[in-house]
Amino acid sequence: MVRRVFVLCTGRCGSVTLARALQAHVLSHTVGHESRAHLIGPGRLDYPEGHVEVDNRLSWFLGELGKRFGDEPTYVHLTRDPEQVAASYARRYGVRAGIAPAYASGIIRARSPRTDAERLAAARAYVRTVTANIEAFLADKTRVVHMGIAAPEPGLSRLWDLAELSGDRLAAADALEQRHNAS
């Protein structure tokens, strides 16, 4: 059975790197990175069978994702050291449509962080919240892969087996050594 795969993450954790490694070396599935992020409405989650989607924004659609797909897909929780993620987001304040500033001033409804310390505190809160949401969502799922980008190989092997991927796993593992979208 060709399954869907959803990679859930905070962002700033190697998601572009993972997507590019899979796009280049998985033959059995299509692979997208934020491929439907621009859509509003019911079509937002119209991912076909045999597709791997890597999109940090899926963490805000977990209820819909669960209702629509349940326990059928393979879910990957891609992580990186939370302090490194928060620091990366804090450095990126001012980037158009940045998720951490949107969280701080739109979800929390605080004034926009003005100092480096405030930006880091807001980014830490964002990372904690998204991580907790993902962990709660995955608590009852049976096809879960935990992949830390600092040491991705065990997670990649588990993903390859659970999702029944075909292609060049070793080349994908090597490709995970290349950093993309670093800041």
Which CATH first-tier class would you pick? Alpha Beta
Question: Multimeric state of these chains?
Answer: single chain
CATH superfamily: P-loop containing nucleotide triphosphate hydrolases
Our count of domains comes out at 1
Q: Indicate the mean pLDDT.
A: 92
Question: What does this entry look like structurally?
Answer:
This is Sulfotransferase family protein. InterPro entries: P-loop_NTPase. It comes from Streptomonospora litoralis. The protein has 183 residues and is of the alpha/beta class. The protein has one domain: P-loop containing nucleotide triphosphate hydrolases (Rossmann fold, 3-Layer(aba) Sandwich). It is built from seven helices and five strands, in the order E-H-E-E-H-E-H-H-H-E-H-H. It has a five-stranded parallel beta sheet, sandwiched between helices. It is globular. The chain starts with a strand and ends in an 8-residue tail after the last helix.
